[in-house]
Amino acid sequence: MTLSEPEILRFLMKSRERIAAATWVVVQDGHVAEDIFQNVVIKAMTKEVSFEAEGPLLSWAMIAARREGIDWIRKHRREQIGIDEEILDLLVSDWESGATPAPEGKRIQALRDCLEQLPEKSRKLLQMRYADGHTCGEIAEQVQVRLDAIYKRLSRLHAGLRQCIETRLTETT
Amino acid sequence: MRFDPEELNDRERLLRFLEGDLSHQEHVEVENWLKQDSRARALLAEMAEQGIAVADLARAECFTAKLEIAPKYAAFKQLGTPFWLGLAAALIAILAIGALLFQFGEHDSIARLEFVSPDAEFSPNHQLARSAGRTLGKGWVHLEEGKLRIHFKSGATVELEGPAAFGIDTPMRSYLDFGHARVHAPESARDFVVATDSMEVVDLGTRFELAVDSETRESNVSVSEGLVDLHLGSRGTTRVIRPLAAGFSARVDASGDIVEINRRDQHLADANPRLLAHWSFDTPTANGGIADVAGDQLDGMFSMGTPQQVPGVSGNALKFDRNAHVDLSEHAERFRQSESFTVTVWVRDPRNSLAMLFSLSGETERSRVQVHLFRKHVVYGWQDGLHYDAVSGRVDGWESGRWYHVAVACRDGVVRLYRDGELIASGSVGSKIGTPVRNPSSVKNATSVYLGKLEDGHQGEESFPQRFEGQMDDVQFYSGALDEGAIQYLYQHPGESVP
Q: What value of ipTM does the predicted structure carry?
């Protein structure tokens, strides 16, 4: 029995963060990674690829996204250093072994709660970077802060969110 | 420098890595963290996933309610996720309907039979139309003899030569059970797939030939123009992607492993490979150096004073502790002359997860070739400018106390990796970003040659050398590529060179 189109779409959307994150590591551009994820979804829906289970679908999507990412580098960024294939294999292997928890369900709810607790300035920084798509350099210019400081703030925010998510997940179990 | 997840600077550096905002040297350092430390990988993945999730949540109004939304999102924000999903579904439906109606005008047609040779014979299993000009839907073409040409509505054409069994699935996907197919996919059919039992050949706008043996299930892919990606492995398994460029062919076995890659119409090995150097480590030179026993006196210097000898696979071996290496840099020009070459090494107990065996580099690490072990891989890597790329072969690990024979042979742009006499990988382009294989002659201004070390980032920059800790024995360097038989001879006769 094969997965239906709605099932494929539902699963790919559920795995969106994971697939897009893996692609981000390849292309080193979060917004390109999101575009590539969309292409992968369209490919899955329009090319009549059939899957018998979610595991092979995720494996296919990861490979398709990685290949599109490599293809994008070939076309657009001849100067890009790229990432060692071995690291990508290790990342996927970490994910498959469960060493890195998937950002879905309760984890996403926890992230949502944690974001709401953040000071407005911090939320604004996250929004500018990840939702509005400004580079760290552009943000630094806009808010008149040194680039290093933007990276430091974002690094702290990621670490803070991680801690907050873990605390919330512990509280709810 | 080791990764410390509690250190803000290290986390910041991972973030910069994600943003592509690192110097080359920093990039290499972060790659080393990621290879060696699962905590670094977890943190990197987490930051990327958080970034994507934050963007999603922001767009879904989950946390932006309290924010002043940027003008360009203000109107879209009110639409919400259901609207976007609905829009995506509508677009997909329009695309699908458009594709169905495009060109052929028949709802169930996928391709058209463009040409059928007069001597064509179809087997009783044949399910589709048999005459030229007829449209073809989903199903199997069983050709016993003769030739035919199928034109897919994606623009791809496939020429089949009987006997062959060929499955038509979608305008962008087909299946070759056995037989011989020639494929041309123009830009409109980019990503056209021909699948077999053991792989998928993904066309990136090119011409290629694919043959599948009906008995052994072995496949042979030969690319005449452009580039294809081979997705190796059977359906439902985790697949490995290997690019294959024009002018090269790959033989793939029934389980999806590349048996070998060849430049088309060329021989596998040089007629007369010549032993350029052999460091047996049995006896030091008079001044305590590492003697080349091949006779060309390409002697090396050991970095830690007196070489530390231990019993080897034949005679003595050399023990490499931290910071130990053999410096062969004074002979750099000799090694650089090798367009085709072979390096063979006996190794025992490699302790670093990335264990550097041999390196030849120019004034900076941006021009180099290297042979190293990485966890369960033997790797041949090269860099020309900002690109680092590599071909690697997977092995089952490195058993403690056991000697392993590792060999790398390169000729005509094809590199072959062996362990214990067996071919474990070959490639003409790197699996990282698909750059062509480089050889020592491509290293500009070669100045550094080492056993057990890669000199990284010299010329005034901070240095991050990669090293080897363990034991090495009987390292040999040949000018010319040895074939598999010669490599097996070296494995079976430790201490000897190829007669």
A: 0.83
